[in-house]
Amino acid sequence: MVEDDQDTWGARALCRTADPEELFAEGAAQNRAKAICTGCPVRTECLAHALDHRIEHGIWGGMTERERRSLLRRRPLVTSWRRLLEAARSEHEQRAAPGDEPAWDAAG
Ligand code: SF4
Predict the structure, then answer these.
(1) How far, in Å, from the CA of 87 to the mean position of ligand 1?
(2) Which residue in 47, 66, 98, 105 has a CA-CA distance of 20 to 30 Å to 90?
(3) Is the CB of residue 59 below 6 angstroms from any atom belonging to ligand 1?
(4) pTM for the complete prediction?
(5) Ligand 1 site, residue 61, Cβ cutoff 6 A
């Protein structure tokens, strides 16, 4: 398992040169922000960080705060989103065809 070191994965973030205001947008503008995340190589790490640290604002890992709250409500017993998402990604990579979205995207 990779440590949750935001300095390490953050250096590979697709949004590192984006305007921070874009990632903390409201309403329809959130869809533009989420689109930035689609091809981000550290999307799993980013989402896990936000979920494990209960970050309430902004787009993280392609999910809005509302989507993350919903996910946290549905899975109250998860103690490490990092561990869970890493395992899901590994399983997904072993099973899925290239280009398929990870399962947590479909859970919305
Ligand atoms: S998933 Fe999105 S918010 Fe997170 S680091 Fe990547 S581009 Fe930035």
Answers:
(1) 19
(2) 66
(3) yes
(4) 0.82
(5) yes
pLDDT digits (tens, 9 = 90+) for 9-63: 999 999 998 887 777 888 888 888 899 899 999 999 999 999 999 999 999 999 9
* DSSP states of 57-69: SS-BTTB-HHHHH
Q: Is 102 a pocket residue for ligand 1 (Cβ < 6 Å)?
A: no
User: Residue 1: pLDDT band by 50, 70, 90 thresholds?
Assistant: very low
Q: Burial letters for 4-21: b for 16+ Cβ neighbours within 10 Å, e otherwise?
A: beeeebeeebebeeeeee
Q: What is the dihedral of CA 15, 20, 26, 27, to 10 degrees?
A: -30
What distance in angstroms lies between residue 6's CA and the mean position of ligand 1's atoms?
Answer: 11
- CB atoms closer than 10 angstroms to residue 59: 27
Q: What is the pLDDT of residues 54-96, one digit of tens each?
A: 999 999 999 999 999 999 999 999 999 999 999 999 998 898 7
